[in-house]
Amino acid sequence: MNELNDIKIHRGLKEIYLDRTKSSFIDGKNGKLYYRGFNINELANNSTFEEVSYLLIHGKLPNKSQLNEITIWMANNRDIPIEVINLIDSIKHLHPMDVLRTAISTLAAFDDSLDDDSIDSNVKKGLSITTKAPTIVTAHVRLRDGKDPISPEKSLSHASNFLYMLFGVIPDELDAKLIDKDLILHAEHGLNASSFTARVVASTQSDVYSAITAGIACLKGPAHGGAAEGVMKQAQEIGDEKNTTSYVKNLLSSGGRIMGFGHRVYKTADPRALILKIDAKNLSERKGNPKWFGILQSLAVCMEPYEKKGICENVDFWTGAIYNLLDIPDDIFVSIFALARIPGWTAQIAEQFSNNILIRPLLAYVGELDKPYIKIEHRK
Ligand code: CMC
Predict the structure, then answer these.
(1) Which of 197, 263, 302 has most ligand 1 atoms within 8 Å of CB, for mutation?
(2) pTM of the complete model
(3) How far is CA 237 from CA 69, 232, 233, 243, 290, in A?
(4) Which residues line ligand 1 (CB under 6 A)?
(5) For the structural domain made of 227-325, what CATH number should be given?
(6) To the nearest whole number, what is the mean pLDDT of the chain?
(7) What is the CATH architecture of 24-221+335-354?
(8) φ and ψ at residue 15, rounded to 5 degrees
């Protein structure tokens, strides 16, 4: 037992490298993020979610015909089985992340290639889940509102079709472009908790549906993907810019955390937050609704003293305001994060499969040993 006392414990696996990757690189010190070697700023300004999905999954940018092919394939594979729609209807009282997790797990039952574990089949499964996830999320929102789900529209892009299925009208081009950019910015992010979870599942040689279902379960928590919803809840509680200082003081002095601030890897500004801040500002002006941007901006100013401790705005801080200004219901904010992250999970699951090792760390036991077993009638 003595040797257990000398073990160096890495709680939360902080700063531990699990393996090598070519999927993404987070330069947390300098606030930079790369997907497959491409700077996130370049991708956010020039690419589309379909192209980034190809990039993450295949490791290189597509040429014209490859992009055309993946875009058409994605548009043609958005429908979900009626059995899954009925299932969503029967659990529509649940949180959208619970519904998404359950529905994606159920999609496995309708995949004829479930037992094919070739790389091609696994990548195709990940892409198929990517294309169907918005149909699940929007069908749920409409069913719980007593409306019929809207069938996907093949002529629209992935982002545009998502807004179309949510609201039932062809979206404004700028709104759709903004959602497209938001999806790009959430598509991949190193060994975050949900990608780690997906890799752990893949490492047991389980299947893609199981790994992505597990990723969704992990992403749901407020310390990970659930923060954008928390950000808007906080903004609503603050209610007015003049209340921000006292709100922050009270929350932090009682040990609370400001949602949308802090990150395990970035100890400077999250580059995604810098991009989305400008978009949130422009959108609030375009929609003639400066309230939420104003409150969040005042919150950011109040948190400035914490920058030197490495507590800065993260990606979730401005996304909440953007979704809110687009009239997207608060409780699907984290679902949007999930449907954006599926190509990233797919890339990492494929990477894990291609050079697999069972992920199985250790725990240092600190309890007693050889305790006497006392029969039940003699226990106090
Ligand atoms: N508000 C106030 N204090 C904070 C915050 C925050 N949001 N984040 C970290 N801290 C403090 C924390 O109290 C601790 O202080 P001390 O050393 O005095 O005890 C110190 O910073 C380090 O915190 P930690 O929890 O050890 O750091 P971590 O790297 O484990 O935490 C985090 C990362 C994201 C869980 C945390 O920053 C947090 O809870 N943030 C709020 C939730 C949030 O915005 N999550 C979204 C993350 S970005 C999306 C994603 O990639 O998943």
Answers:
(1) 263
(2) 0.95
(3) 47, 8, 6, 9, 17
(4) 12, 189, 192, 223-225, 227, 252, 257-264, 311, 314-316
(5) 1.10.230.10
(6) 96
(7) Orthogonal Bundle (1.10)
(8) 60, 25
